[in-house]
Amino acid sequence: MSTATVVGAGPNGLAAAVALARSGVQVTVLEAMAEIGGGTRTQEAILPGLFHDQCSAIHPMAVGSPFLAELGLEKYGLSWRTAELDCVHPLDDGSAGVLHRSVGHTAAGLGADGRRWRTLFEGPAARYDDLGADIMRPLLRIPRHPLTLARFGAPTLLPASTLARTFRTEQARALFGGIAAHAFRPLHYPMTSAIGLGIITAGHRHGWPVAAGGSQSIADALAALLTDLGGKIETGVRIDAASQLPSADLTLFDLAPDAVANILGDRLPARIARAYRRFRRGPGAFKVDFAVQGGVPWTNPDARRAGTVHLAGAYAELAAAERDIHIGRMPQRPFVLVGQQYLADPQRSIGDIQPVWTYAHVPHGYTGDATAAIIAQIERFAPGFRDRIIGHTVRTATDMTAYNPNYVGGDIMTGSKDIRQLIFGPRITVSPYSVGVPGMYICSAATPPGPGAHGMCGANAAAAALRHLGR
C-alpha cells in the first residue's frame, strides 16, 4: 500500500489527506498544534459556553466546494446555517447596501443599480456549479466550461475601483467594494474585482453560511471521515527539518512556501527555493472577539439581521484605508468586518450574551493596538455598542503567527493575492502544487484557488500526488 504524510491539519491538509485515503493511500497527518483545524478552529474565548470562531467564520466558498460536496460530511456532524441576510454595508446616513442570497432581492434594494447588479450576477450565479468546477482549480488549464468561464472572467480582470464606478448609488459601490476588499489589496489594482465577484457569485448560489457549532465542525468532520478511511492524525508534532519527516511515498505540506523551503533546505531545486523564500506577504488582520449583552445595536435595521457586516463608510473611505495598509500606514478608520454568526447558529450564545467576531485590516506586521479603532468603527454605526460589551479578547497581527504559523505578520490570506500569486501560487508554473522534489507537494492557501475553508487547495494537490503514483 502506498503511504503519505501530510504536514498540517488545516482544512486543506485534511482535505488532501481525505482525498488520498479515498484512493487507498495510507495517510498520516502531523499537526504542530494541540488542536486540528488551522484557521477553522473554534473556542470558548471569553465565557464558558460562548463560542467564537478564531479566524475563518463565514463560508460562501466552502458550502459550494466541489470537493466537500461529494464527501457526505453531514454524516460526520457538519451542517450549514444561514442568517436572514448575508451581508450589509451600512453608511453614515443610516442607509446600507444589502446582500441577499437572491440576486433579484439584492437588485431590488439597490434602486438605480438593480439592473447592473442583475447583469453582473444573475447568469453566473445560475451557472455557478459549472463555474466553480473551473475557478476552484488552477486557471492555467483547459476549462471544463470555457464559455461560462469566459463570460464570468472578463470583468474579473478589472480593478475593483473601475467596476465600482459603473454603479450609480453609494450603497451598491460600498457593498461591492467591501466584498472586493476581502482580497486585502488596493482596489485600484488590476484583478482586484476577481475575489469580490467570486464571493458574491458563490453567495448568490449557496448563501453565506456558518458551520453549526463553529467552523471547527468543518475540520472535525473531515478528521472523522479520514479516521473512517483508515487515516491517522497526530497532534503536537512539529516538523522543522526534512530529517524529521517519516519515510513515505508522498509528502504534502499545508504550510506557507517559506516554511516548506526551511524544512526541505537543499533538497529543493535552487530556483524553487528562491521563489518560495521570495514569496510575497500581504497586509495583516487584527482580531477582537466580543461578548455583547443583547447584540450590536445597529442603527440600520438590516444590519441587525445580517451574518456579516462590513464597516468602512462610503467607497472612497474604504479604498483609502486599503491603500494605507498596503503601504504600511495604519488608517484612522480601518476596514472592519463583523461576524454575527449567532444569528444563524444560536447555540453559540449564552442567553442574550452574544459572541461578536471582528477583525480590522491593518498593515503587515502591525505592532500597535487596533482595539479602540475597531470599537469606534462599530460605535459609529451602532451607538451604544461600547456600553454592551461584557468582555473581549484580542489577537494582534503579530499574535496571528503564534496562532497559525502560516499567518506571518497577520497575513491570514497566506500570501499577497497579487496577479502573479493569485494565478500561479508561490511560483510561475503550470504545476503549482509540485515543490520540485518527486512525491512532494504544497497544498496550503498559498496555492490556487487560495484562502477559504473549501479544501480545494488540498484536493487539487492530492490529485497531482495521485497522478505521480499513476492513479
Automatic annotation (TrEMBL):
Secretion signal span: none
InterPro entries: FAD/NAD-bd_sf
Top-level taxon of origin: Bacteria
Record-given protein name: NAD(P)-binding protein
Protein source organism: Nocardia aurantiaca
